Amino acid sequence: MNDSAPMIWDFEFTFDVMPSLLGGLWVTVQLTLIGYTIALVLGLLIAIVRRAPVIGAIVHFVMEFIRTTPLIIQVVFVFFLLPASLNVPLLGPVPITAFTVGVTVLGIHYAAYTAEVYRSGIEGVAQGQWEAARALSLPTGRTWGAVVLPQAIRKVIPALGNYLIAMFKDTPLLFAIGVAELLTRAQRVGSESFRMTEAMTMVGFLFLVVSIPSAILIRRLEKRYVAV
Amino acid sequence: MSPSDTPENTTAPGVDGVVAENAEDGLIVFDKVVKRFGDLTVLDHLDFSVAPGERVTLIGPSGSGKTTILRLLMTLEKVTEGRIWVDGEPFSHMPRGNGMAPANEGYLRARRKRIGMVFQQFNLFPNMSVRKNIMEAPVHVLGIGKDEASQRAEELLELVGLGDKIDAHPTQLSGGQQQRVAIARALAMRPEILLLDEVTSALDPELVAGVLDVLREVAETTDITMLCVTHEMGFARDVSHRVLMFDQGRIAEEGPPDQIFGDPREERTKSFLKSVLENGH
Amino acid sequence: MEFLQWFLEFLQVQLPRYLDGAWITIQLTFAGAVLAFVLAMVFGIMGSTRPWILRAITTVYVEVFRGIAALVVMFWIVYALPDMTGYELDPMFAAILALGLNVGAYGAEVVRAALNAVPKAQVEATVALNLSWFQRMRLVVVPQAWAQMLPTFGNLIIELMKASAVVYLVGILDLTAVAREVRSGTGETLAAFAIAFVFYYLIAQVLIFGMRLLERRANVKLGRIPPSGGGLMGLLRPPSVGTRVGVAK
Fold first, then answer.
1. How many angstroms separate the CA of residue C109 from the nearest CA in chain A?
2. Each residue of A159-179: b (16+ CB within 10 Å) or e?
3. Do B73 and B228 meet the contact criterion of CB atoms below 8 Å apart?
4. Does A197 touch chain C (CB under 8 A)?
5. pLDDT given at position A124
6. Backbone angles phi and psi of C49, in degrees to 5
7. Which residues contact B119 (CB under 8 A, 6 or more apart)?
8. Low-confidence ranges of chain A (pLDDT < 50)
9. Chain C closest-CA separation from residue B34 CA (Å)
């Protein structure tokens, strides 16, 4: 057992577990990128649907509900709710992994936020732009695709970028369902070897190594786009 | 005979002969003061002094450095070169060892307590009522009791003609009323020197007179030394002992108001006064 | 009808446990918010001052604790700290510390930005009245920046409340822990979690309402809205959480 005496940093151990931790970081990055893609696409759809009369109000309430309840309990809930595998016609039973659940819930949760960002962008498009599109008899699809969205999205790129970093930092929550991301792996190797100090400190360090440069990058983007 | 014939008059002594020639005599003395913002020289080796109780108006085209003089005295800016003395004591600098060092915040706090300022944009505190605006500094800086400070606030508001607005919020007042409160706020600190920085420039024309009347009253009933930057030439003529005409960071001409406004000698003064009159100020 | 009856019975049996869990969640939120507020104020004010060393300290604190999720910090305190120091913190205390440090870092940025947004002319007026730095901050700058901080503080306290759900991972019996326990005891996943979700939602609504009251009071104080404008019902407009660009998360 751990004698809980103060101990000295073990560089050899740190070095030994690095491949496993970096593997975890790679999973974290995958989760972030896939989850973010879901959030970007779904959020946009929600932002558009929200403008519809009745469905819009319902969608708005659901999104509000998602935003005011914790991500971690949402993940755990969905993980428990879904069966271990799903019978898909032609493919047969497809396993539902923790990774799949995690990345999907992460994406949906953040879609509730990106939808609000898109909404503010869409509302920021001048009324005259809609009227001009109508005057040209553009079909609805073209009005959205060629006139409104390009203007709306350009304005909200920095805000969307912030949610990319936020999502990256939220991935450790998937520890709760055992997705083999960075924190999960660190906890595993740390408890196996009673070297939690090194394991946990390295998690923090690796997160900073990614998030601080990304934050600087986003700030640059912000300057560039807000200036327009 | 014309006074301009004598060489002494090129330095134009003010009314009552109150101009000081060196640091010991003046209440305020600028000694070769230079102020630069980057490459821009706003004040260029400026020398002048103000006697106790004197009321001096600074005029000149915008960018000529008038406001900078007030801001230097209020310690909102630091001199680039030269020294400022107030009441015979170094003001922009403090003694250190055998020499002088730029004044630090503690030193400035002790020096500037005798100086008050009224700003172009009033700068009332929106998080306080009118009463609080006037009371806070006397209570916290001078250590005056709350009851006494509150009563003094009422008296000062009566003086500026706003006795009924004491518990109003600054945003409920007109610009002219706000400026009168700002004057009361500055007076509450019992300053020996009052700096007035274009106090009517931000006001609608019909509100200007009320503010100027208050200042006339202050000038007549107190012996506060006043430095006033203004475009209100009638007001300058009425209250000031001396007028300084600035141009490009230097004094272009100085003299009693009757002479400056009635018989300006410098071409720059003439053209400036002409442009002010044409613009309807 | 049958389902409703079954659910009401379920609720009746389990409600005390949820109330206990909700109480823990509320305690965590409150204590975490107090700590976060103090940290935000201290570091935010330091970040708005002139000495570079104070600003550097703020930057380090903000970047480190914004860059690492509260969960990771909490694990570090619970698992790594005892190994290093031999001291074990009470999990509840560790959780509050982690939540406070994390949200405090976001808050410090909010405070710093709000303080810097107070017009320079207001600061000059305090110089003209010879207020000390401390008096200037206390009497003029912070009260004026306050109204600008509040909307984002409102979002941050919701985020803190949500982030508190990670504490079940170190054995604290909060709402999420109760939901898991009730599920494993009854096998009713949907009902067990739905009750917890509703509790979280209700706590969030109360927080949103409370923050609105504070916001309104601050704006009345600054003379931006009349004291009676809108009435209490004006506060019940549809809430929008987390929509402030880039600061809510």
1. 14
2. bbbbbbbbbbbbbbbbbbbeb
3. no
4. yes
5. 87
6. -90, 175
7. B182, B197, B199, C121, C124, C125, C128
8. 1-6, 228
9. 22
CA separation, residue A85 to residues A80, A90, A97, A175, C187 (Å): 12, 14, 8, 20, 19
Tokens 């869990």, located at residue:
C21
- Looking at the partner chain, which of C67, C169, C196 has a beta carbon nearest the beta carbon of A211? C67
Whole-angstrom CA distances from C156 to B64, B266, C33, C85 are 49, 64, 9, 32
Question: How far is the alpha carbon of C158 from chain A, nearest alpha carbon, in Å?
Answer: 7
Among candidate residues C33, C162, C170, the one with its CA nearest the CA of residue C96: C33
Q: Please give the helix or strand (H or E) that residue A168 lies within, else none.
A: helix A149-170
Of the candidates B109, B123, B141, which has its C-beta nearest C122's C-beta? B123
Q: Which residues, other chains included, contact C243 with Cβ-Cβ below 8 Å and sequence gap of 6+?
A: A113, A116, A117, A120
Q: What is the pLDDT of residue B7?
A: 41
Is A68 in contact with C162 (Cβ distance < 8 A)?
yes
pLDDT tens-place string over residues A45-82: 999 999 889 999 999 999 999 999 999 999 999 999 98
Write out pLDDT tens, residues B135-180.
999 999 999 999 999 999 999 999 999 999 999 999 999 999 999 9
Q: What is the pLDDT of residue C236?
A: 53
Between the alpha carbon of residue C161 and those of residues A162, B3, C106, C111, the distances in Å are 21, 82, 14, 20
- Distances B281 to A4, B200, B207, B217, B251 between C-alpha atoms, Å: 82, 11, 13, 21, 22
Round to whole Å and give the CA distance between B53 and B46: 21
Which pair of structure tokens corresponds to residue B148?
């006494």
User: Is C130 within 8 Å of B141 when comparing Cβ atoms?
Assistant: yes
Q: How far is it, in rounded angstroms, from Cα A123 to Cα A134?
A: 17
CB pairs under 8 A between B and C: 67
CA neighbor of C120 nearest in space, from B202, B123, B133, B115: B123
Partner-chain contact B125 C122, CB within 8 Å: yes
